[in-house]
Design a protein that fits this description.
By secondary structure, this protein is mainly α. It has 7 helices and 3 strands. The chain has 2 domains: about 70 residues, no CATH class; about 90 residues, no CATH class. About 45% of the residues lie in helices and about 5% in strands. Helix 7 links the parallel strand 2 and strand 3.
Length: about 190
Amino acid sequence: MHLKLDRVHFIGMSMDNLPPLHQEGQYLLGNAYDLPDDLDDDEAWINTYMQLDLVLAAQPPTEEERAESRRESEITYCREKESGTMWTKSNHSDAAGVRWPPEALKHIRCSTVVIHAGEDQIFQLKHAEALRDDVQGATLVVIENCGHELPHRARWLITDAILANAKKGEQAMAAGICQTQLKTKSVSSALA
C-alpha cells in the first residue's frame, strides 16, 4: 500500500440523495426548501443548507442543534463553494454517477456497519436491510426517532456503533476468521 497504513476505516453517509423511495420523502425534498433567489448570496445559501439539514431530522431542533447546524452549514457551504460542488444539494443523483451494482457488494470482505434512521424520509428500512444482507457479516443498527439527517443527539450512538464495528473487525482479523451475519439492533431509549 502506497500510504503505508496498517488499517483504514471508511465512513459514508446517505446515498447521495437518490430519488426518494416513498411519498413523504418526495414532499420533503421537493417543497421543504428552495434554492436562493440570488445565487451569489452566501448567507442565503447557508440558510438553504440549514433548512435541508433541519427538515430531515424528524423532530424540531433544539437551540443547540440549530446553532450546530448553522456552524456546520457555514463550513459545508464554504467548502462546497470553493470546490464547485454546492449544486449537488439540488441534483445529487446527477452528480453522483453510476451506483454500485448489488452483486459488487457481495465482494466486500471487511467489517461493515450499516446505520439507518428509524424515521428516514428518503430510504425505507428495507433499503438498509438489503445492504446489510448483501455485505457478508454486516451489522445493521437502526437509530430510532431520527430522520434522514441524523441529529446531533444521535452522534454518540453512531460513534458507539462505529467503534464497536471497528473492534469487531480487528478481533475477526486477529482470529483469522470470517464474520457471520448479525441481527439488527435498534437504539431508541436515549432518543425518545
